[in-house]
Design brief:
alpha+beta, 11% strand, globular
């Protein structure tokens, strides 16, 4: 099947259409399988030993998801700087050898392809360099967010506009989306969540921005994940340890996985929410979404800073229609869920010091 050009606004859907028409997973590439498994297990890309990209188009797609355009001179300069910083860290701090071609000479678009090749010294070096670049890029984006006078509201609006536009396009094109909605966690809900947690840091509230997606059938779940990972969610910034998956059987993906794609089996998957009903089922994961903020930056800040990307943490809830309907019955309902949360907060706040009556 001919792969659509990246400029095609429906490129991910057209590439994935055979997943529905063929009634299964046969069109999933090895890279697709790895990305979906990472998401479902709540893994970190830092634990990967190999990519599985096969073309420069794959590389450009991943860069675009990370808000990097190889046609943009400033973005190319940014990549060169990230590469230089990462190489310096590996050589000077870790005292590890780094081949000159990997560190500096090889065209950047070739690096992920080398990291996707057969095991070799260069393949391992390319993986190592990409991992360190990944961390530096994230740190720089976090730092930029703390120095710019940009409100969360402005940044959230950009993410919401981008994601909703994508789903409008896909729904129009016939993707089996039954319901799509988004919301921002109210201040009251944030207070409740922090009162429930042992850690009371606001930084640990991952779902301030939430997207909820319901598809027609359970068989549509994996193809939909592929579209999300092709169109709006960079797999490398799935937040590790925050996936709850009670919908998709990982064994159904393992049988399709070819030998040679080396990932860790584990994953710090959290325990399901203790306040959900016993029969509540869903796929829930968290991702850091990169957002270009040139239009929101003052001219002087834009001129001084080579970085113009910040990250927004968003939660995604995905399920099929039958599961969504079952989740609203009896103890699984949202009303009962909130009641159990509020009851727990009341108990925690009213608890007297230990040793006193009623404590």
């Amino acid at each position: 099947m001919t792969t659509p050009k990246q400029s095609d606004p429906f490129s991910a859907f057209l590439a994935s259409q055979a997943l529905w028409e063929g009634g299964g997973l046969g069109e999933l590439s090895l890279q697709d399988l790895g990305e979906i498994q990472l998401l479902l297990r709540g893994q970190s890309v830092i634990d990967w030993h190999r990519l599985a990209m096969t073309s420069e188009e794959d590389v450009r797609r991943l860069l675009a998801l990370n808000c990097i355009d190889l046609e943009d001179a400033k973005d190319r300069e940014r990549l060169a700087d990230l590469r230089q910083q990462a190489a310096r860290y590996i050589v000077e701090v870790l005292k590890l050898r780094l081949d000159e071609a990997i560190a500096d000479k090889l065209p950047w678009v070739q690096l992920p392809l080398v990291a996707s090749g057969k095991a070799s010294a260069q393949q391992r070096m390319a993986c190592m360099l990409l991992k360190v670049m990944h961390i530096i890029y994230h740190l720089d984006a976090r730092e930029l967010a703390t120095t710019l006078a940009i409100s969360d509201n402005d940044i959230f609006s950009q993410v919401e506009e981008s994601v909703t536009r994508m789903f409008d396009e896909l729904r129009t094109a016939g993707v089996p989306v039954v319901e799509f909605s988004w919301s921002r966690k109210t201040k009251e809900s944030q207070i409740t969540k922090l009162l429930l947690k042992r850690e009371t840091s606001a930084a640990r509230v991952f779902d301030r921005l939430r997207f909820r997606l319901i598809v027609r059938n359970a068989a549509d779940l994996v193809p939909t994940l592929r579209i999300l990972l092709h169109r709006c969610i960079p797999f490398n910034y799935i937040v590790p340890g925050q996936t709850v998956n009670t919908l998709i059987d990982l064994d159904s993906l393992k049988v399709l996985q070819q030998e040679g794609f080396d990932t860790e089996e584990g994953g710090a998957t959290p325990v399901s929410n203790e306040f959900s009903g016993k029969g509540f089922r869903l796929l829930n994961f968290v991702a850091d979404l990169p957002v270009r903020v040139e239009s929101l930056m003052p001219a002087e800040a834009l001129a001084e800073n080579g970085n113009h990307v910040v990250f927004v943490t968003a939660e995604f809830q995905i399920m099929d229609k039958g599961t969504a309907e079952a989740n609203e019955q009896g103890e699984n309902s949202h009303t009962q869920y909130k009641h159990r949360q509020h009851q727990h907060v009341r108990v925690r706040l009213l608890r007297e010091p230990r040793g006193k009556p009623g404590g």
